[in-house]
Amino acid sequence: MNKPVDLSHLAARAEEDSNTSDNPHFATVLDARLSRRGLLRGSVGTAATALFGSVALAGCGGGDDDTPAPTTPNAGALSKLGFTAVPKSMEDKVTLAAGYTATVVYALGDPLTASTAAYKNDGTDTDFGNRGGDHHDGMEWFGLSADGQPSTSANDRGLLAINHEATTDETRSSFFLHANGGTATLPRPTSEVDKETAIHGVAVVEVKKTGSTWAYVQNSTFNRRVTALSEVDIGGPAKGHALLKTKYSIDGTRTRGTLNNCGTGQTPWGSFLTGEENWFGYFTRPAGDDLARGNDKSVVALKRYGRAEGAASRHGWETAGTADIYARWINAKTGTSTDGTDDYRNEMNGMGYIVEMDPYRPSSRMVKRTALGRFAHESAAFSLAKAGEKLAVYMGDDSRNEYIYKFVSDAAWSAADANPVDRLATGAKYLDNGKLYVAKFAADGTGQWVELNLAAIPATYTAYAFADEADIRINCRLAADAVGATKMDRPEWCATHPTSGEIYFTLTNNSNRRVSPTAGSSSQLAPDSANPRAYTDTKGTSSQQGNVNGHILRVKEAAGSAAATTFTWDIYLFGAQADADTGLVNLSSLTADQDFSSPDGLKFSPSTGICWIQTDDGAYTDATNCMMLAGIPGTVGDGVKKTLAHSSALSIDTFIGKAPTADTLKRFLVGPKDCEITGLAETPDGKTMFINIQHPGENTKMADVADPTKYTSQWPSNAGYGAGKRPRSATIVITKNDGGRIGS
Ligand code: FEO
Ligand code: CA
Ligand code: CA
Ligand code: CA
User: Fold this and answer.
1) pLDDT at 660 over 80
2) Cα radius of gyration rounded to whole Å, the chain
3) Quick check: 62 pLDDT over 50?
4) Which sign, positive or negative, has the C-alpha torsion 151, 155, 159, 164?
5) How far does residue 277's CA lie from ligand 1's centre (Å)?
């Protein structure tokens, strides 16, 4: 979600903004920058080499030469994009590059069993536990051979594991799901709440190509839904921990549901990972709960994770009845036990993880991998798996001023684990034991991974007393505050370059960046080197401030090692409108064929090496709907250092990747009205791509639900898919008309 206006009744859905730790940065970054200058003055060249390594010197100098990127490309990696760029568009349809075709394969409400009724799409449908969920988001491909076995080479039959992040709503109600738009007042009716909990979670859907036509397989035995109420195991250090004990799981080993599933990942052993993002908004915490808890340290943790007492829930699910499935949304101390086994005071500690699923085994439970930390997770991108070396998993925490993390496995990768009999046991081997780090970006183009453990917490940090190492993982935002991690401009997805192994992070935007932060504001931050922009952009008659359009940062690990504790970085691309000032805003000199805002989804094609960039924007939507672009990036350090002169008192050095050309960055697709483009899965041959169109028409008013002419989008019914005119989130399949690879 990326609402341009933060309406108060929607506050629970907005990205959370509770990082009031005082590791802001302006001073530190400025100091660091000055001391680097000092160093450079003292010993020009050598200091730059030492500090800066490949950033300043590899392939250097140049923004404008045509030297190829100094990586060894895939045999099939493209050096030039083969399609004609698509113009910006505000049409209510999927516009894509000439020579390509897109069709809908799986939408909200589609039946996933043979006996589930066809979707009427008029608000009367039920049985959502056996239907496509809402707000399709991250997605991964898991191939199937002709005889239905897992296959890493299949190109015409496979499973899509798909996140169903959320739902289009207004004043609590998911109004397109209910006949009359539903109930905005409390209590919420049970029938409405049961639909709404069921359309959240994850789906596994079989898709198959017959002739040249792709379709989902309604009666596949692989089809599966996990909802906000499905039983899920806790794995890793928080399993059985005191902070996970609830009335539902008195030994702290299980919980119900996975929520607000946003980005995804795929493990080297063939399982699916899903990130739980804005889960806190689904819980209520009544006024008076601080006192009920004796103002203990749980209050500090709850506030840091977005739930101050008095916080209302997004949907009011807790009001649908007295049954336990509704009561669990009240995250409060209501019982008399000392350990929380008679209420749901600890319920939120069961959300906020990377969750693993074996997509090939519909009956297996998902497992929350708590070693990877608890926050507003997006994607989980692995380092390139190398036999005998540890695996890293890179992750972002998507809220304003939050952090970038990596997990490093204790176990070294064994190629024999690539196709295991038991994927979840292999997941436990690599993901339940390891170190968790948070990123600190320095002003000289270097950075550090700071390990989060009890030993790292400074004695001066008194905001929260960590009980043990598991408490550090469960409350890793607080641990990251304590070690002075760098506050970022809303980290969304990350993705690993298939040959260089460099890691790219989308930083979608940050309305809290200011050249001159308001005095006393604990949330506004001055720009720093890794988050160097703060400006004013106009949209119609309004203006928006901060890092309005976002950027894509990339990291190169020291010695290319997943376990490295230092790295170099630069910024691959800055989002901007093409006509913006190239001195402070359009720093990547984007043209009208390339300009974009609010990068979010990010994925590399293993076949073509293309970096696919997807947007979830509210800033540039006066000029275009959200989009997907194709990029062929170089490497960290292939561009220039630039000093941004924000004001007479503030200039910031940053490092900008080599400017894209008309051959290396182009808009490939623009979505229908009021959607976000997200999720990307490609067949191994690179010839079939699936992406998701999330929440078309989301700015429709609930009061207009009976009048299709007032919907801001009627996609995909206007593209010939399905009954009714209510807009639906959906997966589309894209192929090239000449049968070639996507983007070639
Ligand atoms: Fe669900 Fe941060 O996007
Ligand atoms: Ca977003
Ligand atoms: Ca603008
Ligand atoms: Ca996202």
Assistant:
1) yes
2) 24
3) no
4) positive
5) 7
Exposed/middle/buried for residue 460 (C-beta within 10 Å: 0-12, 13-18, 19+): exposed
Are residues 302 and 285 in contact, defined by beta-carbon separation less than 8 angstroms? Answer: yes
Helix H segments across 339-407? none
DSSP letter for 159, please: E
Render pLDDT for 224-270 as a digit per residue (tens, 0 to 9): 999 999 999 999 999 999 999 999 999 999 999 999 999 999 999 99
* Cβ pair 713, 675 in contact under 8 A: yes
Mean pLDDT for the stretch of residues 336-360: 98
> Which residues lie closer than 8 Å to 178 by C-beta, 6 or more apart?
123, 192, 195, 705
Atom of ligand 1 nearest to the CA of 376: 2
Number of domains in the chain: 1
How far the first Cα of the chain sits from its last, in Å, is 31
**Tokens linked to 372:** 């990877």
DSSP per position, 263-294: EEEE-TTS-EEEEE-SGGGG-BB-TTHHHHTT
CB count within 10 Å of CB 443 equals 24
User: Residues with Cβ within 6 A of ligand 1?
Assistant: 165, 262, 277, 378, 398, 492, 600
Residue 607 lies in a domain: yes
Residue 694 domain-assigned (yes or no) = yes
The pLDDT mean for the chain works out to 92
State the pTM of this model: 0.92
* Element (DSSP H or E) covering residue 28: helix 26-42
Q: How far is the CA of 601 from the centre of ligand 4 (A)?
A: 6
Q: Which domain holds residue 392?
A: 8-736
Task: Establish if 136 belongs to a structural domain.
Answer: yes
CA 492 to ligand 1 center in whole angstroms: 6
What residues contact residue 286 under an 8 Å CB cut-off, 6+ apart?
309, 310, 330, 332
What is d(CA 270, CA 613) in angstroms, rounded to the nearest whole number?
Answer: 24
Task: Tally Cβ neighbours within 10 Å of residue 386.
Answer: 15
Residue 394 bridge partners (DSSP): 381, 406
How far is it, in rounded angstroms, from Cα 352 to Cα 371?
12
Task: Report residue 74's pLDDT band, with 50, 70 and 90 as the boundaries.
Answer: low
Single-letter amino acid, residue 454? L
In a domain? residue 744: no
